[in-house]
Amino acid sequence: MSDSKKSFIKKYGTLLLLAAGAGIIFQLPYIRETFYPQIQEAMGLTNAQMGLLSSGYATMATLSYFIGGIVADKFSARKLLTFSFIITGILGLWFSTFPSYNVARLIFVLMGISTIITYWSACIKATRMLGTSEEQGRLFGLQEGLRGVLNALLVFGMTAVYSHFAVKSEILGTSAAIKLCSVVVIIIGILNFIFIEDTKKEEKSESILEVTKGMFKALTIPRVWILVAIIFTAYSVYGLIGYVNTYAVKYFGLSAALGSTLGAIRYLVQGLGGVIGGFLADKLKSRIKVIVGGCFFLALCFAMLIFLPVEASLLGAVIGNFMFGLLFIYAVRSQYFAVHDDAGIPVSMSGRVSGIASCLGYAPDLFMYTLVGSWMDSYGAAGFKMTWVYAVVAALLCIVFSFILSRIIKKDTAKTTL
Hints:
Elements: H1 3-24, H2 32-43, H3 47-72, H4 77-95, H5 101-114, H6 120-128, H7 136-166, H8 170-195, H9 208-218, H10 222-241, H11 243-251, H12 256-284, H13 287-307, H14 315-333, H15 339-342, H16 350-361, H17 364-379, H18 381-417
Helix pairs in contact: 1-7, 1-8, 2-12, 3-5, 3-6, 3-16, 3-17, 4-5, 4-8, 6-16, 7-8, 7-12, 10-14, 10-16, 10-17, 10-18, 11-12, 12-13, 12-14, 13-14, 13-18, 17-18
């Protein structure tokens, strides 16, 4: 086999493993996206309590993103990734027993450590290092697409297991599905230990103090804050679109089993949206244009949900709108870390900048789910419509911040050409 073929296989084999990990490890802390009504019933929780589970995870994850940025630029990936997956899988097995609410909150807090500190920033940095500046949109788009396909396969498997055991008991079916996911996460951890190479010693030469100083220095760069704002608003839209599934189950007559199947189909759409977003970004030579276009159409999708009457006969319209929204949000999501290259962030700072952008950009997890959950508990269908208004505002703000970043980049380009 020629060296070029070996290089190609290694490059895209690594991308495949990174994509599998990046997608599947988050199935457990975000299990509500697929089995929200079933978990809620099994544990007897309100929407607000479901939101607090997510907020507990997010609170720890926020700190972990920041620490993870330091870890990614300092320590070997292989051992950290293995630890992260295996511990997360064990926590998933624990949660599958549906313990008390307080124990469940502890499990989600611990997942905020295990899924972030040793994985996330390292994954982004590793993806950036796989290709040139011209390939960034494509690589992140392919990663998003592969995550979608692999997630879909897993969720279809989880749904099949759920359906098989739900004949006896829905609680038993939900527990079996979570156990399947947990075992797959542990297996991926073992594969990481086997196939991911340890970082070379010279790549770990900076002391923890130097890396930490570099992290705080990155906070003084104005464009880093614009990147944070783009991720914050786009991620808000991404988090809220998952409630469309629950909305269809509660108010439009969609069955719980079909709702979970729809949760699996969303990951196939993720595959399509991620790949389209990536290749379109490289074709247009602008990741920012993809984000702006995607957010514009997302605002339209959520606006439609606001004005659509709550009638079971309109279930098809809700599902169709959901699918279009997913296509656009995954195109956007595939690019909001790739845009770091547009912003001129060097790869040497990628881990720490990704840590900052993730720590602050994913901050909606701290309050958003509890907030909208309380709206849904208090106002019913009207609470969902309030959630859709929130999503429209977030999508429009993302467009504004993207234009601001574009102007900063153009000014810097003009200065360098003088």
